[in-house]
Amino acid sequence: MGSNTTEFQEEKKHLHTIQKDITTEMEKYTRKAGACFADIKANLDYEAVADWQQETARKQRMQRIVNTLREQYKNPYYGRLDLINSDTGELEQYYIGNSTLILNDTDQRVINWQSDFGDFYTDEKTEGMIAKTRYQLDLRRGIHIDEGKLKKVETTFQSGSSILGQDIVDPFLLAILKDKRRKSQPTEIIATINRKQNKIMRLPAEQDFVIQGCAVWKNHGAVP
To answer: Whose CA is closest to 113, among 201, 204, 11?
Structure first.
């Protein structure tokens, strides 16, 4: 959908809020990392050495968190689910991303794609059980973010409307793939996993299965 649509502007506003909160979280952990070693005495006796090692590990942990948040700022999520909780009748909104995003220790803003909610999104379910609660799909929306910028928004299901995106080739995923092909460096593929691929990926590791299809292999001597 175009950048002037209601859906695009809604997601642009949400992305801005998420990125603002991520920036605040990064600043918090940067301050914590900078405060390490502050209370250690200058004379390195035995206890001070132990404290120094502990503070070194603590600072490294804070820096890893900042690095992770920096990556999540660029691409925090790729999908949205609005689900009706059958127990309460309330509408619940979930954003699905490559990794979980938790701010202020307890505020979960993005859910990992490997979760049950991620499966609900990728498998294109319209209803299902999650943690003993039945959910009914109200809205499914694909969101393409690249280097922190919102590029494309596509509502693929909305309650009361016909289901979209049921063609063999999903136009939203195709647009993402085309964008990735324009880049020379390797890119992650999680947002482009389709329903059939998702089912295969979630099979038990010890289970045997056969995939029917074709593969194309090219080298420098092959005919394109």
So the answer is: 201
Residue 85's Cβ-side half-sphere holds a number of Cα atoms within 13 Å equal to: 11
* Other C-beta atoms lying within 10 Å of the C-beta of residue 52: 15
- pLDDT by residue for the chain (224 residues), tens only, comes to 567 789 999 999 999 999 999 999 999 999 998 887 765 544 455 566 677 788 889 899 999 999 999 999 999 999 999 999 999 999 999 999 999 999 999 999 999 999 999 999 998 899 999 999 999 999 999 999 999 999 999 998 988 775 444 443 455 555 555 555 555 555 555 555 555 555 555 556 666 656 665 544 444 343 33
pTM for the whole thing? 0.72
SS (H, E, C) the chain: CCCCCHHHHHHHHHHHHHHHHHHHHHHHHHHHHHCCCCCCCCCCCHHHHHHHHHHHHHHHHHHHHHHHHHHHHHCCCCEEEEEEECCCCCEEEEEEECCCEEECCCEEEEEECCCHHHHHHHCCCCEEEECCEEEEEEEEEEEEEECCEEEEEEEEEECCCCCCCCCCCCHHHHHHHHHHHCCCCCCCCHHHCCHHHHHHHCCCCCCCCCCCCCCCCCCCCCCC
